[in-house]
Amino acid sequence: MRIAFLGLGLMGGPMARHVLAGGHALTVWNRSAAKSAPFAERGATVAASPAEAVREAELVILMLENGPIVEAVLFGSGADAAIPPGAVVVDMSSIKPAEAQDHAARLGQRGVRHVDAPVSGGTTAAEGGTLAIMAGGEAEAFALAEPVLRLMGRAVLVGPHGAGQLAKLANQLIVGATIGAVAEALLMAERGGADPAKVREALRGGFAESRILDLHAQRMIDRDFATRGRCVTHLKDLDNALDAAGRMGMAALPYTALTADLYRGLIAADGDPDHSGLLLELERRNPR
Amino acid sequence: MRIAFLGLGLMGGPMARHVLAGGHALTVWNRSAAKSAPFAERGATVAASPAEAVREAELVILMLENGPIVEAVLFGSGADAAIPPGAVVVDMSSIKPAEAQDHAARLGQRGVRHVDAPVSGGTTAAEGGTLAIMAGGEAEAFALAEPVLRLMGRAVLVGPHGAGQLAKLANQLIVGATIGAVAEALLMAERGGADPAKVREALRGGFAESRILDLHAQRMIDRDFATRGRCVTHLKDLDNALDAAGRMGMAALPYTALTADLYRGLIAADGDPDHSGLLLELERRNPR
């Protein structure tokens, strides 16, 4: 398949490599050209602009920072007019559900199909080709994209346009609240004289088992808050969830609101550490 | 090893069967004698009272409902005076950390050692011999009990007397908050037009992965709130966590307090459904 891949950052880079390794005719574009060079060496075409990249594409994949950047690259650069009618745009960036719905509608007017397909799993899963991919859009367009998505992870169509982004917000809500609850649990155990590392080990395999207890609890125990998952990004996602819920008339997302409040306190005091730094905020709220 | 096992209920029954299958000389006691009969058929000795059960034990295992019942069976029945000095009491019941510390101190005066070792994983893990066992006490007593505990699951010594119970409360805090967050996420996704079953499927393998997303999310999707994990028990554990934290001077356990508040609302409206019923309470707080 002729595929254009726009955005070769920490996530997009390894994802595009999996697509290329899958034997597809790949054209790449990245804002800073240096990141495209390794792809040229492996046989990909390097485009000078988004519009040039998408001109002959059957599938256009985006992996960009946020909604406004997707807007600029897709619509502000003239790329939208260059995409062949009938092609499918798969936007794997994490943006607002309402933005994804807007993009789908505008591309649809030109006969270009849209699938929102944000991911979870971080750079480790991007590199391993094991991302959780949450897709929204029409079944036919998803079916066309799915064999390519499968090179990057496991994709599930969860609903209509925007539903993939909504599922990503649901994902972020669970991840944030689980980090907070694990931090609260380890702090309570430690203050009561238990060894947090042993508690983590003891809890594994029981009902408290989670990826967060595996990865993030270890960071808390090591007090290693070097940023892998950004608090600022996570807070943005939680605020987007509260905003999206508000638009649906949902008044009460108490776990989301609590976690957003803790992130706000953490960011005010500590800048932008790893999101497992919620422990620091809970420690602050419980002075010795 | 000569082992006495007191309490053959939904959890204790399968746990005692694993101990018997491990080749130990087992004496069992249960409040209602009917549950002892199958053990007699398999070669265990059935005792008529707790005191009779423990008389020659090197290891005494308790699996009872709560702290007051442990108090009654262990101290109110004269069993404590019948346990040979040097023996180890392993209390696998879920009781308050302060109660476990009290029991350890009182037994210690008679030269009987105490390990608190509550479990997580429910009846499935009890039957499979795959419980997560959180132990508190002295290393030597734990080392003596550990080969027997291993027949029932995986045991980790997390700290001094009471620390196992504290770890269990930490476990319950994480489990409750994760159930709440998963319910909130699925509700938001559903209200936004996504298919909750597909969202659960899409999220699996990402950072939101957990035992709760596996088991409890499925119950929410099936709207199957038949009680496997009781809300009333879970709320009792959360209140015990808040109480224990208060004794340590911890003012803020916000995830625990939020989850306890939701359980209180749920119990007031719906009685005592499965703890995955937190979805019902969140639905009520977000009328359509």
TrEMBL record, chains A, B:
InterPro entries: 3-OH-isobutyrate_DH-rel_CS (IPR002204), 6-PGluconate_DH-like_C_sf (IPR008927), 6PGD_dom2 (IPR013328), 6PGDH_NADP-bd (IPR006115), HIBADH-like_NADP-bd (IPR029154), HIBADH-related (IPR015815), NAD(P)-bd_dom_sf (IPR036291). It comes from the Bacteria. Keywords: NAD, Oxidoreductase. GO terms for molecular function: oxidoreductase activity. Residues 162-279 form the 3-hydroxyisobutyrate dehydrogenase-like NAD-binding domain. Residues 2-158 form the 6-phosphogluconate dehydrogenase NADP-binding domain. PROSITE patterns: 3_HYDROXYISOBUT_DH. The keyword NAD applies. Its EC number is 1.1.-.-. SUPFAM superfamilies: 6-phosphogluconate dehydrogenase C-terminal domain-like, NAD(P)-binding Rossmann-fold domains. Belongs to the HIBADH-related family. PANTHER family: 3-HYDROXYISOBUTYRATE DEHYDROGENASE-LIKE 1, MITOCHONDRIAL-RELATED. This is NAD(P)-dependent oxidoreductase. It comes from Roseomonas elaeocarpi. The lineage of its organism: Bacteria, Pseudomonadati, Pseudomonadota, Alphaproteobacteria, Acetobacterales.
